C-alpha cells in the first residue's frame, strides 16, 4: 500500500507514532508541525489547524507531493486544564477551536479529494476523558466528546461515498501532554487502570492503522477505546 496519509500533530507524541506506523507500512506520510525542526522521514508541512488559510496551504503542498489525502488522522490537540470557577473564556474557546473546530477544518478539506476518489478513511483522536469526564478538564472533555457526534454524523452523511469515520479514544499515554502530571496524579490514574500502566504511543497507533486498513472496511462510526480498560468501553 502506498496511500497519501496526513497526520496532524504528527511531529511528536502519539501523532509521531501514528505517522511512523503508516510510513513503516509503505504509505506516503505527511505530518503537520508548527515550529522547530520536524522529524525526518515525512513530508512535514507547517500548519496551525486553528488557521483555515494555513490548512488550505498545507493541503495544497501535500496534494502537489503525495496526491489527494486518502487517509486523514486528526490527532492535533491541546489541554488547558482549570477548574470551572477559574476557567477563562479563552481557556475554553481555544481548546474547542483546536480540538473540535481544528478537526472540522482538516476533515472538511480532506473530504474534497475523498469525494472525488469515492473512498477515504478518517480517524479522529478523542480521549477516554470525553466520555468518562474529568474534573478540571471540562473544556477538553467537551471538545473530545464532540468528536464522537461529529464523526458519527459524517459516517451517516458520507457512508454511501465509501468514506469511513472512526474515533480512537486513548486512555493515559506517555507523551509531553501527560508529563505535566505530578507523580501523585500519575499514581492515582494508574490505580484506576485495569492494566495498571500508561499506554505507549505505539499502542494507540496500532488501532489507528487498523481502522485505516482493509481489515476495517466495514467499520464506521465506531469509538474504539485504547485505554487499558479505564473507560470499560463506555
Ligand atoms: N497523552 C495522552 O494521555 C492522551 C490521551 C488521550 C488523548 N490524547 C490525544 O491525543 C492527541 C495527541 O496527544 P499527545 O499526547 O501526543 O500530545 P502532545 O505530545 O502534547 O502533542 C500534541 C500535538 O498536537 C499538535 N498541535 C497542538 N495544537 C495544534 C494546532 N493548533 N495546530 C497544529 N498542531 C497542533 C502539536 O504540535 P506542536 O508540536 O506544534 O505543538 C503536537 O504535535 C491529542 O489530540 C490528545 O488530546 C492524548
From TrEMBL:
Reactions accelerated catalytically: a (3R)-hydroxyacyl-[ACP] + NADP(+) = a 3-oxoacyl-[ACP] + NADPH + H(+)
- CDD domains per record: BKR_SDR_c
Q: Does the keyword Lipid biosynthesis apply?
A: yes
| Domain Ketoreductase residues, every copy | 3-176
Provide the top EC class.
oxidoreductase
What domain of life does the native source organism fall in?
A: Bacteria
Q: Which UniProt keywords apply?
A: Fatty acid biosynthesis, Fatty acid metabolism, Lipid biosynthesis, Lipid metabolism, NADP, Oxidoreductase
Asked whether the UniProt record includes Cytoplasm among its keywords, one would answer: no
| PROSITE patterns found in the cross-reference section | ADH_SHORT
- Which pathway does the record list? Lipid metabolism; fatty acid biosynthesis
Q: Which Pfam families does the entry mention?
A: adh_short_C2
Give the EC number. Answer: 1.1.1.100
Q: How does it assemble?
A: Homotetramer.
Q: Which family does it belong to?
A: Belongs to the short-chain dehydrogenases/reductases (SDR) family.
Q: What does this protein do?
A: Catalyzes the NADPH-dependent reduction of beta-ketoacyl-ACP substrates to beta-hydroxyacyl-ACP products, the first reductive step in the elongation cycle of fatty acid biosynthesis.
Q: What is this protein called?
A: 3-oxoacyl-[acyl-carrier-protein] reductase
Q: Can you name the source organism?
A: Streptomyces lomondensis
Amino acid at each position: 500500500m502506498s496511500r497519501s496519509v496526513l497526520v496532524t500533530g504528527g511531529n511528536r507524541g502519539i501523532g509521531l507514532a501514528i505517522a511512523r506506523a503508516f510510513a513503516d507500512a509503505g504509505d506516503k506520510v505527511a505530518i503537520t508541525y508548527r515550529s522547530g525542526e520536524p522529524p525526518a522521514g515525512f513530508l512535514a508541512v507547517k500548519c496551525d489547524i486553528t488557521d483555515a488559510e494555513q490548512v488550505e496551504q498545507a493541503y495544497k503542498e501535500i496534494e502537489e507531493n503525495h496526491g489527494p489525502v486518502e487517509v486523514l488522522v486528526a490527532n492535533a490537540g491541546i489541554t488547558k486544564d482549570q477548574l470551572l470557577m477559574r476557567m477563562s473564556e479563552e481557556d475554553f474557546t481555544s481548546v474547542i477551536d483546536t480540538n473540535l473546530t481544528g478537526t472540522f477544518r482538516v476533515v472538511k478539506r480532506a473530504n474534497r479529494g475523498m469525494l472525488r476518489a469515492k473512498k477515504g478513511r478518517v480517524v479522529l483522536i478523542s480521549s477516554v476523558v470525553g466520555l468518562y469526564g474529568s474534573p478540571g478538564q471540562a473544556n477538553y472533555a467537551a471538545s473530545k466528546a464532540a468528536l464522537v457526534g461529529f464523526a458519527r454524523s459524517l459516517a451517516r452523511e458520507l457512508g454511501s461515498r465509501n468514506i469511513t469515520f472512526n474515533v480512537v479514544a486513548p486512555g493515559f499515554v506517555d507523551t509531553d501532554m501527560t508529563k505535566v502530571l505530578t507523580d501523585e496524579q500519575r499514581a492515582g490514574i494508574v490505580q484506576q487502570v485495569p492494566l495498571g500502566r500508561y499506554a505507549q504511543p505505539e499502542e494507540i497507533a496500532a488501532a489507528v492503522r487498523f481502522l485505516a486498513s482493509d481489515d476495517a472496511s466495514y467499520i464506521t462510526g465506531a469509538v474504539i477505546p485504547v485505554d487499558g480498560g479505564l473507560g470499560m468501553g463506555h
